[in-house]
Amino acid sequence: MMRRGAHNYVCWRCLAFRPADSIFLPTQVRTLSSSSLSLSSLSSSSSPTSSSTSTSSTTWTTTPVARPARLWLLSRTLAPLGRSPLRSASTDSTARSGSSFDWSPVHASLQASRNPNSIRERLKKWEAENPVPALAMPADEPAYGVGNMLTRPQSEFAVRVDLATEDDHDTTHFDGADMVDAGLEAAVLSPGDLVEVNTGTWKVSLLAILLGRFNGHLHFYTHTGKWFTCRNIRSGFVVKGFIQDPAELQAVINAIPSLSASETVLNQLQDLNLGPSRDVGASLIRRMYKFQAESRLIHQTYVERLSRASAQLGSEEKILSLREITDLLLPASLKRNKGAFPPEALYAVHSVIENEDIAFRALNRGARHHEGYPYALYPAAVQANVIRVEEMVRQYCELLSQAKPSSRRLARGTAGAFTEFLQQARKLIDRSREQRAWSPYGMLGPRKKDAAALDPSEIPAFSDTGLALLRFIEHWAACDGFRPGSEYHWIGASILRLVDRYPDALLDASTGWTFLQEIGWLPPWDVSARHALRLPEQKIQRHMAEPEVAGPAELGPDRVAHLRQDFARSTVYCIDSADTLDVDDGISLEAAGAGKYWIHVHVADPASRLAPDSELAKLAAVKSQSSYLAGFQHPMLDHPAIREAFSLGPNQPTLTFSALVDEDGHLLDSKITPGTLRDVVYITPEDVASVVEDTGHLHVPPQVLEVGARPAAGSQPARRMAKPADLSKAHRHDLKTLSKLAAALQRNRVERGALPAYPPKPKATVSLDGVSREVAHNDLVFYNGDPYIRVAYDNPGNPLVSSIMQLAGEVGARWCYERDIPIPYRVQLNTDRESAEALRAFTNDVLLPQLAAGKNPPRKHWDVMMNFVGGFAMTTTPGPNLIMGLDLYTKVTSPLRRYPDLVVHWQIEAALLEEHQRGRSLAIRPPPGGRAEDAPAEAAVATAKEGSLAFLPFSRKALEDAILPRLRIRERHSRLTDNFDGNGQWILQALVRAWRFGDVSPGAPPLPRTFRYTVTSVTPRRTLKGELDWFDRPAVVELEHLNDVVRLADIKAGDVFEVELADVNVRDNRICAKLLRRIEQAKREEEESTGEPSSP
């Protein structure tokens, strides 16, 4: 109930969307059966013959229904809950007796619809005289892609909160040395935090307060009075501790209809809007509205500054944090305590940036920095091109609509160049389809046999107008330059419509992607993830190119040459694949007597000669790590001199991380020493496993899919590889001893809560040996052949190597911790005692038995584990990494491939030089868990503290404020490109080629016709989400693909179906399945328990 002046009224939004218990309906409506609720029934009940009697006996009663149009739905939904949606009342009821309902307006409207001169009849007549195919209206709330923003009103009271996305399905990467969280970070939220929730397709944002996590689900309450739940959330703006008093939350928590662990139950309750009422949540709503009002006031006060946001930030592309942007846009007088802007000011700037679709892109696939995600500022040239193309397309369409079809003439200049572009594009598309079939699956088909080759004369040179249009389509379709709810999608769709070669296709970004492939702008097998996830300053090549001639490597003299130890008496085992070019780590063993051993991890040492401020080092910082995306590999330190100078081998320099351990796997001592190698043995992980007789590997599923012609065998390895038969007795003894020690170290970590093993993941291996350029002209390229793609489960890594590489990281972290040297530690976000104990119990009781049995635990179990962990962070603040069973950890073993490792090496070597110069250790404290006698003497601590850390190349402040924020997002995007989105798109390319084009390699297993599909979640009235038994691929089932097998309301998470493929989109990384039959029915989710603690 709301109040305007002296009158009370009920908001129409409340009538439409709240599960009201006090909406009055006339008896006639109450007594109608759900099947008769239609215009015809209303017409009959309102006929002149019955009108007088029905209206005279009308009474009113209270009914728990939202509106008449939803009576049937509510009756079907609420019946299982034991509630009757319609309460009957006799005509002589005393409740509001004497009230009547006038049906005459309804009757008049129905009579008007029968008038032959009515608009309905005239439209029917016009349609009969002008038959045209009906255009499908986009869905109001699609499971993916762009929805209906044309006829559907957008209101913050009428939105469905967009939470789960396909890219959130599996974003925790196990790389054999540690676990990298490449996904969301909801677990770092606390009850009382304020977050902004986006609605995806609709350009509407809501403010919400986290009520708590209960049985694995986060519960939120929005400023519109809506309650919703999710397992995880992606929020672009957060205010920590917005509600300080837990009592303010408790009343709303008590009104939550269910704290069930069942996602299906919670979805149904939310769909019925059965959450806490606005009366109960009034205090929270007032707090959020006050925050919003203060933010809008700041916006209005400084609207002139904020309206020119992009113009004030420069013309070059860059990554900026919300605080950096606010510093440039708002006056410093708004800052409060500690010189920081208040959350209201930050939110005002955030809201402006979110609506600047041309200039900014939120980097929401990575970690938040402070209040929000970092932003990518598009170059001024890209912004100007969008504005230019928008005006160009609008004017061209208006020009076409003004002239009559028989006498249409185009003006010179831009219109003529636009027409020329369309003609050139059509010719290229027609010619391309003679070689490769277009498909609606987000990719082109394989090259047709005996297709005629293109001649360079057939490839046109695009004008400046044509290039502007192509760059726009690349920005739109390849780079994901616009948000799903952006108004600029119409431009790309209009260009495709004018090209007139996609009559039956949805003119979305996926079709735009295939357009770029058809005209030779991009390779026909290109991976859109490498474009969409590219960050500012990073460069990618559209086509395969010859390597550039490298300039000087800027290598200086060896700064730690006088500190190097000669490891001539040690045999170093470099355990890696035969085709690895950058060998950056090796292992050696040194007996120390009494069952103790020194394990030496020798790591390549580019930090000794490469300065942090050199151009090559700056380029490495931008890349963050080597790219191993299949078909598009690029090293981080891309210079032949680097590989020659630092890839491990005889007489090569190293930075060696040494650990003294006993046979029970206890770490007794450690040290770091620059060194030089002499005796090096290269061997593959598979051969090491055969030597040490390792049978403890995790079971790897045997599934394989191969498409294309297999590459010729017999390629020479990058170096001479030792075979088991080549190894001496001493070599075998070393490897077996190292294996036993590695296993003992890992057992100790597991006892402390470490994950016992990393599950295998599907990986696409790609060869471009069969691909060649057919013709390249005017910056367009067409190709012969297709990539060979092999999809199989990747072995999670040799346990000997992974365990000892973790040991090296632990040694490096402990050494820096003792000296208070700032480095990028890898820490776990949830480290409280309760989370640690729960994680240890869950790992040992749930995950370990499944992994030991050779099973990959289901997605929900990994979700539970990540909820305990809370995610991972790269920070200068030391902290434990419980999922690895370590008190401290950093990465040190790949400085040729990872920039954070290189940063650690620079810091360590600077400290080694300082210790050598001072003649004493810089240690000021013992490592975590160290013995009291390990602590430095007070005099040594005082002496060490006398000197500052000015000798370090990176200060703590520089790391935290400038380097790590950008490094986090760059590392995250690189992981997503290589291991998730990019790898997934290669897998789907293979799937489409096998499914639709029959391109399975000769002798390879065929693609199954049907699959086993396990439901993971049900979105009421929308979709199913689940997982195929084919390489654990996520898939959705739309309503139209239920295939009359079962009603959506009767499906529960855990149900198993036999399905076939309905649609695949490579560009969007999406699989749609079609139900064939139910195989298994899950037990009621209410009976299941996640085992998670609830946190109010």
TrEMBL record:
SUPFAM superfamilies: Nucleic acid-binding proteins. Residues 564-914 form the RNB domain. Residues 39-62 are annotated as: Disordered. Coiled coil: none annotated. It holds the Pfam family WHD_CYT4. PANTHER family: EXORIBONUCLEASE CYT-4, PUTATIVE (AFU_ORTHOLOGUE AFUA_7G01550)-RELATED, RIBONUCLEASE. This is RNB domain-containing protein.
